[in-house]
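User: Show me a protein chain along with its predicted structure.
Assistant: Here is one chain, sequence first, then structure tokens.
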Amino acid sequence: RASSTPLLDDNTMSAARAMATTQLPKQVHLASAGDLQLMLPIFEHEVSAIGYHPVSDNNVVSLVPTGSQANSSLISRAVNWVLPDGEGPLYFLMGEGSGAGNVTTSIDIGAPAGSVIYAPVDGTVAGIKSYQAKGKCEDTEIRIQPQSQSRFQVIMTHVDNTSISLGQPVKAGESRLGAVRSMDACMAQSLGRYTYDNGNHLHMQVELSR
């Protein structure tokens, strides 16, 4: 567990959501897929942990993380800790040795349920779908067609209270998409191994346009 992860009580969360009505999150470069840049879609002070893990889908594009790996070897950690501010957030690799594909094909961005989600790229809402995660958990998926990359789509799941419509243009770090959905009562969340809560998070990946 990350010793620096803050414990967010109800008063802190209430203040954070009030701030979300008047302020925008800091523009933090999270990862890239080719020329496509993904921005952190949640206020940085609400993030409990960031973890990359593999998914078994040939259509998914491997991501290049920005920042420092928090659970890397002692040697590489010693190098990563001296990176200057602005070089990206700390992250965990959660699926090394799983045999399920490249470990950086998807991101879990941990945050308390109800945290506001913003668009990670400039683009257009290409899909909004309700479905059953793992066949038993109510969930919503959002697809964004990036403005700069017609061959990619950005996929986000574990979204609640969606506030967008199909075909709507969105801007990175400015357009509100919804909120982090509470999934802890429905499914075990791997990110919980790295946080002080049950690991509620926004899941995000980049796929080739079908």
